[in-house]
Amino acid sequence: MGTTTPAPANAPPEIPKAPFYFEAGFALFAKRPSRPFPPPFLSAPSGSFSEPLSTYDRSRDRRPTVHGEMIRGVTNGDDAVLVSEQFIGANDGVGAWATRERGHAALWSRLILHFWALEIEHAAISPSAEPDPVSYLQRAFEKTQEATSSPTTDSAWLGTTTACAALLSADTSTPAHPILYVTQIGDSQILVVRPRTQQVVFKTTEQWHWFDCPRQLGTNSPDTPAADAALDRVPLEEDDIVLAMTDGVGDNLWEHEVVQSVVASLDKWQSGAAQAQLGKDPAEQTYADGMRFVAQELVSAARVIAEDPFAESPYMEKAVDEGLSIEGGKLDDISVVAAQCKRRKG
Questions:
Q1: Topology of domain 20-343, per CATH?
Q2: Tens digits of per-residue pLDDT, 169-227?
Q3: Which of 77, 248, 303, 330 is the S-S candidate for 315 at Cβ 3.0 to 4.6 Å?
Q4: Where is this region: Disordered (predicted)?
């Protein structure tokens, strides 16, 4: 867990593209360790020790790369998250690919976020030049297809992933107002909570082929960003909280429970009780640390249900609606990014 996902040391400094930015943090729970990224994305170990079981726990000098550049984001089981000042995302790799010899859903979910973030970094985005996140995702998808089928990998690496992300920009009014561009394929989720009213002001709609088979990008899937991605333009207020979550949250917590968790953890942080609980000086903490705490609390709440075979859950309710006898929560990777919209000073 942390406040930002790693970026290459030699990456150019991020140029502010809007008068607003995210104070953000993320938290993760993996139902099982991810497969190590294969060569050439992760070089073979130099000694006799085996590969680390999780790309999230790897040492700093063994971060995965593509085309000679560190892969942006963080892997969590088959999920991937990415956090920057203007862009947050949560992709959910389809775990069934783990049964295939060359299946690697975690690689697909991470690479798509990586290339998506690079497309946004290189785009000329400003209040007077609206972004086109769907075209950025389409190019990221094509680059992931190319990278996973490169001749240097001997044969293709197979996988599919959902994709959802939020890009923060602004309108052209004076003073400017924040605008959120939300892109979605599948059942990961972007949720916007307004602390001032303790209400949800925006929520993405899940996209399904059939029960437990969401729309997804990758091997043998008919879905593409250009044809199937949903794009929403959402007006924000300062201090709105944007959540990017994989279905490990939505399958285990109802919407009102998510809001309750966010509001309660935010109140706890602002009162100083959370910092005291963690043994930290409130004066030394940042808004980003507060968002990390919000994300941690949400992951913890979802995990309680996920590990309870007798709990009532949204996943159980959906299954019953399909005529299936399923009880309890759904044990899954749980990935949460919590980001608060702030106005840039100066």
A1: Phosphatase 2c; domain 1 (3.60.40)
A2: 999 888 999 999 999 999 999 999 999 999 999 999 999 999 999 999 999 999 999 99
A3: 330
A4: 41-61
